[in-house]
Write a structure and sequence with these properties.
Blueprint lengths: L9 E2 L3 E4 L8 E3 L1 E2 L5 E2 L2 E7 L4 E6 L4 E5 L7 E4 L4 E7 L4 E6 L4 E5 L7 E3 L1 E2 L5 E2 L2 E7 L4 E6 L4 E6 L7 E3 L5 H10 L9
Parallel strand pairs: 4-5, 14-15
Antiparallel strand pairs: 1-2, 2-3, 6-7, 7-8, 8-9, 10-11, 11-12, 12-13, 16-17, 17-18, 18-19
Length: 191
């Protein structure tokens, strides 16, 4: 499974910052723009400690980027509209993206294979209004989505199947994971 140790946060809208909680050992990468090594308001970041890659929702470039902190291995995937939260499952190679502008969740691999979508615009079952964050729980095979403008958390089968259940409140680690992805840190969180 993918890990979040440490979280690689977004800072100042155009770069990725990796920093220890005590403020030491800071590394930055990126600048403003649309090319390789450039970002426009990256919103979601996932760090995979098994191979050192970071997965970035590059929001206003409408793409997902996979790279290392020094820029090597840069790969990008388009087809999104204002992507926000991202989760990478290293055991399957799938990324899960809260595709905010399209009001949907996308499950795919970085090469575009296995592209599957869930959702449309609205407030009913299988509908979202600007989903913000996503978390995948491999043990239950459920995805958890912060459905921002509907003021709810939605969860259902991680295979992107239509068994979504709407909950007004959910407590526990899942909510903490979702909330931590929605907050933009000026520092790294080391779990």
């Amino acid at each position: 499974q993918g890990t979040r140790d440490p979280i690689v946060p977004v800072e100042n809208g155009d770069r990725i910052v990796k920093k220890k909680m005590d403020g030491t050992d800071q590394t930055t990468f990126g600048s403003y723009g649309s090319g390789v090594g450039q970002f426009k308001d990256p919103a979601g970041v996932w760090y995979d400690s098994t191979d050192g890659y970071i997965y970035i929702s590059d929001t206003y470039n409408n793409r997902i980027v996979k790279t290392q902190m020094d820029g090597t291995g840069w790969t990008e995937l388009s087809g999104f509209s204002i992507p926000q939260g991202i989760y990478y499952d290293s055991s399957s190679g799938y990324i899960y993206v809260a595709d905010r502008g399209n009001n949907r969740i996308v499950k795919t691999k970085m090469d575009g294979t296995g592209w599957t979508t869930l959702g449309s615009s609205g407030s009913g079952d299988l509908q979202f209004r600007y989903p913000q964050s996503i978390y995948y729980d491999a043990s239950s095979d459920y995805i958890y989505v912060a459905d921002t403008d509907n003021n709810r958390i939605v969860y259902g089968g991680g295979g992107i199947t239509p068994d979504i259940i709407v909950k007004e409140t959910i407590t526990g680690n899942i909510v903490i994971q979702l909330l931590s992805q929605s907050v933009f840190f000026d520092f790294a969180v080391d779990y």
